[in-house]
Amino acid sequence: MSDKLVNILLVEDDEVDVMNVKRAFKKNNITNPLNVCNNGFEALQFLRGESEIPLLEIPKIILLDINMPKMGGIEFLSEIRKDEKLKNISVFIMTTSNEDKDKLDAYNLNVAGYILKPLSMERFIEAVSTLNNYWKLCEFPEN
Amino acid sequence: MFQGIINRLYRMKIGTRTAFSFLAVILVVLAFSTSSIILLQYGKNIDLKIANNFGPVVNAIKDIEYTIEETTRICKDLSIQADESRKNHLHKIIKRVYPKQKLTVIGLCQEPGLAEIKKKVISADKRFEGTKYILLEFLQVIDSAGAYNNPAKLQKAQELRNQIEKENLAVKVVLNETSLEAISVFNKLTAQKFASYRMLSYLLLVMIIVIAIVGMLSIILTNVTIIKPIKELNNILNEVGEGKIVAIETHIKRSDEIGDMISSAQRVVRGFKAKELVANAIGKGDYEIRVPLLSKKDRLGRAISEMRDNLKRSKIIEEENIKILENSNHNLEKKIKELDQFAYITSHDLKSPLRGINNLSAWIEEDMGEHLSEESAGYFKLLRGRVNRMEELINSILTYSRAGKTIENQEKTNTQDLVYAILEQTQMKANTSVLIDECLPEITANKRDLIAVFSVLISNAIKHNKTNDPVINITYKNRGGYIEFCIADNGPGIEPEFHEKIFTIFQTLERRDDIENIGAGLAIAKKIVEDYEGKIWLESHPGMGSRFYFTWPS
Fold it and tell me: Above 80 in pLDDT, residue B6?
């Protein structure tokens, strides 16, 4: 297991949801560096180093919402899968959409998982904890 | 040869043919009657000859014979004694009777067939002429005075008498022969007459046979050349009359009236055939086809052409109507989709602020910790309960907006297995009994659609049943073309006035707080069943349990 904590990018437009994730991280003592972008377009700019926020390291994991303004999650996903530098990032969908079509599109673009945002805080914390255990277990290639 | 004659006959008009046959019959009859008349005349001539000549000839000869015998007899008498009257009679015979009789016979013998007889009569006459001199000498001898007293003279008279007798006998023989000959000629003529009559009867027989043959031939010819083709044509026209269009085929070229009739019928049939083709084409939707008009008077052709134009016009109108209908259908479908989409998006968008409210309230509660009053904690609990229900409502709207017939994965589904699977996942009281028809049928459906319908009805039957021994009965009936399922329970039953209302979304008959019930299940089930072109209904009275029915195409 690597000592180095992997970078995580959260792409989410809802402020409360961002807080929710941050809170859940805190609750689970997850200390991985976390960047937040408010939509797919912003996230793409950030990953390509075109954003105001400097890109220190390409994140290994992206937590991605589907319904967002400017550029939705599925569109963003298909963009990075076409990008040589970004195509091997593990992407977890975190969304409220229970649509079969969304799930199918997501898995066709090789997502690592599709998680429905639960209503209650407790269940969300549990979910984030599971995720943390998962990515702690996985090995990622060095840049 | 017979066929050749018939073929030649076919080139003649029936009138000509009839005239020819009449002429032939008349000629035959004429020939026969002429020859009959000739034969009859011939026989009659012979008869006349016999009556006028031959009979009198024989009689006249007999008369002469008699006269001559009489002279012999008178001479014999006179040689014995004198008799003035006999003497005078003999004179009369010699001078008047005999010449008269001789002339009669010769007159009668003018016929060419009697020439021989005439010759013989003349030769006999010549001989008698000689005898006449002896008779005159005899008379001289006995006329002299005292002749009967003079034996020499008597002797002389006796001698002359013997001579006369001898001569007369010879003449008589000749005459006898002559009359026999006349009779034989007569017989010959009679035989000729009978021969001619026999010939006449043969001729009549032949005539009858010839006429019979000619008649039979004409009947056969009429039959073969006129009646048979007419019958065949009649049969074909009958079939045409019954609506079957049969082609008329002829192997013989004929230019008579029957030929004309056949070619007219062929034209009729060809016309019909052409019309049939055109009508078929029009029936198949070819409205551009040209309708062949047989002539300016072709009313059927004009009617078909008019029909085609009318059909074309109504087709255009129909197409326009279909287009309008399709457009409005399309619009309607679009609107329904938009409505579903609207419900989906709205409910989706409602969800995130709801979750925000939920999170924020949780965080406030968490952050306040012990500072939160008991009352406020209760409010927070109520708040989260309402948030939960709102999420359920939103989820129901989502499900309802998405419910319907799923086009994909339509497959043969065993309802028996499906119902058992649902029952396995359904929580129920321990003493609940579920009775299921043996072998529920296989139907075509998307499994998830069918599960949605069955689970709503089964879970309702269990959820609302407050009796101590809940019984659920699942049965079906094959109604031919579709299956009618029935889920019956012994629950509280439903007032008939609510039977329709319960299928409307968010309509519940109990307080929401009493029972976990959103009121979308039956609405969703109804939407799915109706999308499969089925029906859903119930029979129920309070206290009598409920029977929910729905149909599904088999």
Answer: no
